[in-house]
Design a protein that fits this description.
With 369 residues, the protein is an alpha+beta fold. Helices cover 17% and strands 40% of the residues. It folds into 3 domains: 113 residues, Roll (DNA Polymerase III, Chain A, domain 2); 122 residues, DNA Polymerase III, subunit A, domain 2 (DNA Polymerase III, Chain A, domain 2), CATH 3.10.150; 113 residues, DNA Polymerase III, subunit A, domain 2 (DNA Polymerase III, Chain A, domain 2).
Length: 369
Amino acid sequence: MKILCKRVQLAAGLQNVGGVVPSRTPKEILKNVKLVVADGKATLVATDQEVGVRSELLEIETSDSGEVLLPLQRLTAILREVSEDAVAIEATEDALLVKCGHSEFRLSVSDPGEFPDVPAFSGGQYFSVPGSVLKQGIQRTLFAADVESTRYALGGVLLDFTEQGLTLAATDSRRLAVCPVTCTPEGGAEPGVQPVVPSKAMSMIERTLASAEEDVRIAVNPHDVIIQSGTTTIYARLVQGRFPRYQDVVPRDSTTQIELVVGPLHSAVRQAMIVTNDESRGVDFRFENGTLTLESQATDVGTSKVEIPISYDAEAILVTFDPRFVAEFLRVLEPSAAVSLHLTDANSAAVFRADENYTYVVMPLAPDR
C-alpha cells in the first residue's frame, strides 16, 4: 500500500487524532494511529478504548487500499524535522517506509488487525447542532466538570436533549455551569435522552470544531455517542452513574443583584489569586459604597487588597469565593460582556448570569475558613 500526501496536512491530522492516544498503557498497540486507505480516501484512527476519533486526510494520492499502524511519536518527530512538502508512505508486511525528499525512514510495525475498531458515523437518527454554538457551549461548561471525582457522572458533560433544544451542564458538586444551545432532531431522533459524555471526548470535540458555520451531528446510543464534525468523527463511551438534577441546584430567588463587567472583574480576581495558597484559597468579596473590594491573605505569603468601582450602593455584603472558580467562569466570556451576580447571603449558593441563558452557580466558602 502506498500513499502520497502533504507533510503539513499529515502532521495536522496526527495532531487531530493524537489527543486520545494514551502516553501510558499496558496495551502498546494503542500508542499507534491506524491509517486506513480505501476508495481513494485515507482515514486516521486513534483510540484509548474509551474515546476514539476518525479523521479523513485531504489531498492524498493513492490507487491502493489497505491498513497500517503508524507509530505516533516517531512519525510526528519525523514530520517535525523534515522540511519537504511531500511525504510518501509505503506499507509492507513487515515495515513502514516514510520518504520525504532525501530522507528515508524504515519503521517496524504491528498488526493493524489487532487495533480496536472505532465506529464511523452511520447517519440515521441524530441531533444537529450549529458548530459555533456547540463550541461555545462546551467552552462554557467543560471547565466545571470534575475529572478526578469518584462519582463518575461528574466526570463529564451532560447533554440534555429536550423539546426546546439542547442544554449542556457540568458540575463538580461545588459549582455548576449550565448553557442551553439550539438543536434540531433529524431522522426521527426523539428528545428526552440525557447522555453524559466524558470530559476528554468533549475536549476533543471542541478542538475539532474547525468550521463554526458547519453543523455537528450527534447520534446517541444506549452506551455510547458518535459525533461528526466535518471530516472528523468522535466516538465515546458514556459516563456511568446518575447526573444530578441540575434544574434543582439553581436558586430560584435571590435578595441582591449586582451588575458587573467581565474584564475589570477578571483582572481583579487574578490579582487577588496571587496571594493565596493551598491552605488559604479563599478571597473575600466585599460589595459596599459603589466599590468591590477583594481581599486575600495566606500564611507565609502575605496579603492583598484590590478595589474596582461597581454600580452598587445598597447594604454591604461580604461573601468568600474560591477565586479559581470565579476566574474560570470569567475566562470563557468576552472582557466587555456584562455579568449579573445574584446573592442571598454569605452561605447560600451564588449565581452568575451572562447573556440570556448562561448560568453559573458557585458555592461560597465558609467565612471562617
